[in-house]
Amino acid sequence: MLNQTDTQTILAQYADGPSLLDSALSGLTKTNLDLSPGADSWSIRQIVHHIVDGDDIWKTCIKTALGNSDALFSLQWYVAKPQMEWSESWAYSQRGLESSLALYRANRLHIVDLIEHIPGALEKSVRFDRPDKDELRITVFDVVELHVRHLEEHIESIKAIRRLRNV
């Protein structure tokens, strides 16, 4: 059973994700979005696209768990390529952020709405197929918490770039 206080805190942080990301990007110019810590590192723009795409991909896991807890969720197709290749395949460095940020806001709002309307939503789960590891059961709460932490890590990266590049 999930601790109600911790659950509400994590769910509030998840719902607030778009605002937190907007705040991390506040005041940046289009040119600033291309700043990175070094030549072999992602730019702020690429980090944002990565955050949004990860959130969008895992949204499918959440919706699967909410609708069919016997289903198997797999990311084999995704982990078959390194992150940098996905960045290139999906043109992270060339695209603006408007559509990605709009998708992020909509996905978070949609998932929070589902969680609020489906009894026991956070405890629902799906079988998760992990490459070269045993299958495990992952709950909706696990995925929500994963994305709260994922966003925190990447916002710290954005802040570090801003400090490094004085923006």
Overview of the structural elements:
- With 167 residues, the chain is mostly helical.
- It has one domain: dinb family like domain (Four Helix Bundle (Hemerythrin (Met), subunit A), Up-down Bundle).
- The chain contains seven helices and three strands, in the order H-H-H-E-H-H-H-E-E-H.
- It has helices spanning 4-15, 17-25, 44-67, 76-79, 83-89, 98-117, 140-164, and strands at residues 72-74, 125-129, 136-139.
- The protein has a three-stranded mixed β-sheet.
- A hairpin with a 6-residue loop joins strand 2 and strand 3.
- Helix 3 packs parallel to helix 6.
- It is globular and about 45 Å long.
- It starts with a helix and ends with a helix.
- The model has no long low-confidence stretch (mean pLDDT 96).
Outline the secondary-structure elements.
Layout: H1 4-15, H2 17-25, H3 44-67, E1 72-74, H4 76-79, H5 83-89, H6 98-117, E2 125-129, E3 136-139, H7 140-164
Helix pairs in contact: 1-7, 2-7, 3-6, 3-7
* Overall body shape: globular
Helix content: 55-70%
Strand content: 5-15%
CATH class: Mainly Alpha
Largest sheet descriptor: 3 strands, mixed
Note the total helix count.
7
The second-level CATH architecture is Up-down Bundle
What distance separates the N and C termini? Answer: 44 Å
Q: C-alpha Rg, in Å? A: 17 Å
Structural class of the helix and strand makeup? mainly alpha
> Can you write the helix and strand succession as a string?
HHHEHHHEEH
